[in-house]
Amino acid sequence: QVQLVESGGGLVQAGGSLRLSCAASGDIFSITSMGWYRRAPGKWRDVVATINNDGNTNYADSVKGRFTISRDNAKNTLYLQMNNLKPEDTAVYYCNAFKKAVDYWGQGTQVTVSS
């Protein structure tokens, strides 16, 4: 089992920044990729950004140039730096770990961007 705990969400004005963290614990060996997803009110959960063990990253078009995903393997922590936030970024953000064909999810952290 893999446990994921997100932190760093909150309320911010448009144009502001937040950094989300995701602490991974448990059987984290052989995790092949990690990522951030979000679910806006009334919408499906969508991918925001992913990073694999080679350090390759992918971003949703809507966040390219504004968000940066990174991981600190020594601390078993995943980050999402979010800059120039927009009201449409308002959502619950979830950390994801993919290991041996199984998806693991954190409980989510709320990000609210006011206009």
Mean pLDDT: 96
Largest sheet: 7 strands, mixed
Class from helix and strand fractions: mainly beta
Task: Please give the count of helices.
Answer: 0
Query: How many beta-strand runs?
Result: 11
Distance between the termini: 40 Å
Which strand-content bin applies to the residues? over 45%
What spatial form do the alpha-carbon principal axes imply? globular
Q: Which range best describes the helical content: under 10%, 10-25%, 25-40%, 40-55%, 55-70% or over 70%?
A: under 10%
Radius of gyration based on Cα positions: 13 Å
Q: What order do the SSEs take from the amino end to the carboxyl end, as H and E?
A: EEEEEEEEEEE
Low-confidence stretches: none
Write the layout of secondary structure elements.
Layout: E1 2-7, E2 10-13, E3 18-26, E4 33-39, E5 45-52, E6 57-59, E7 67-72, E8 77-82, E9 91-99, E10 102-105, E11 109-114
In words, what does this structure look like?
This protein has 115 residues and is an all-beta fold. 0% of the residues lie in helices and 59% in strands. It contains no helices and eleven strands. The strands form two sheets. Strands 2, 4, 5, 6, 9, 10 and 11 form a seven-stranded mixed beta sheet that branches. A four-stranded antiparallel beta sheet has the order 1-3-8-7, with no helix packed on it. The chain is globular, with a radius of gyration of 13 Å.
